[in-house]
Amino acid sequence: MARDTSESNPGRLKQIAQTYKMTRRVDSKVGLVLAAVGIVTFGVILAIGFLIGHPIYAGILGFLLALLAMAIIFGRRAEKAAFGQLDGQPGAAAAVLDNVGRGWSVTPAVAMTRSQDVVHRAVGKAGIVLVGEGNPNRLKGLLASEKKKMARIVVDVPVTDLIVGNGEGQVPLKKIRTTLLKLPRVLPGPKVTEVNDRLRALGDLMSNMPVPKGPLPKGMRMPKGR
């Protein structure tokens, strides 16, 4: 048991270090901000300890609270930096949807234009959510076409469509997860499974892509399944 713990700690420390390096590349002031938060938190608690006559206890408490405050601030700035790097990248919305949490089944790239406007589908207790990323004008037609196609498979299931972006009526990348989690839950678990199974029959771009007959061209490989 002790061996497992000792082996996991270096991995966690390495992960924290990598996250810090990634954050610092985007947020150069993250080190100064964390140091300031830790020092101020510790200093305030220690000062209160001297006032009430218990500096040692206050110092210990201040140290723990300083670590907690630094961890919270670091987590928020790291998340902001990660979204900053993803924003504007093709497939960024799919990456965010994959981390929404349990209860959601995500199918990336159910529809796409030649200009790489793409629609992803998520199914959960809130119903069906279509998330588009790309040109808003082209996405409107793409989303409408996808809704029409789904209407032949499922009925009486709410469908919400979102367009990722920072313009009016759009949802910023960092708010996709929050937006999905705030949607009212209207479907029971078995219904979610049924809807998801029916929609899987529609497939996605990869599963619907025709496979050429005969031997593959030299140097070409089949895409790996998920």
Percentage beta strand: 5-15%
How widely separated are the two ends? 33 Å
The percentage helix is: 55-70%
Radius of gyration: 24 Å
Sheet with most strands: strand arrangement: 1-2-3-4
Strand segment count? 4
Please mark out the parts with pLDDT under 50 across 5 or more consecutive residues, or reply none: 4-8, 208-226
Number of distinct helices = 8
* Rounded average pLDDT: 80
Secondary-structure element order, as H and E? HHHHEEEHEHHH
Structural class: alpha+beta
Shape descriptor: elongated
- How is the biggest beta sheet arranged? 4 strands, mixed
Map the helices and strands.
Elements: H1 2-26, H2 30-52, H3 55-86, H4 92-97, E1 105-112, E2 118-124, E3 127-133, H5 136-151, E4 159-163, H6 176-182, H7 189-200, H8 205-208
Parallel strand pairs: 3-4
Antiparallel strand pairs: 1-2, 2-3
Helix pairs in contact: 1-3, 2-3
Provide a short characterization of the protein structure:
It is built from eight helices and four strands; from the N terminus they run H-H-H-H-E-E-E-H-E-H-H-H. The chain is of the alpha+beta class.
Q: What do you see in this structure?
A:
With about 230 residues, this protein is an alpha+beta fold. It is about 55% helix and about 10% strand. It has eight helices and four strands. A four-stranded mixed beta sheet has the order 1-2-3-4. α5 (about 135-150) links the parallel β3 (about 125-135) and β4. α2 runs antiparallel to α3. The longest helix is centred in the N-terminal third of the chain and has 32 residues, at about 55-85. The protein is elongated. Mean pLDDT is about 80; it is low at about 5-10 and about 210-225.
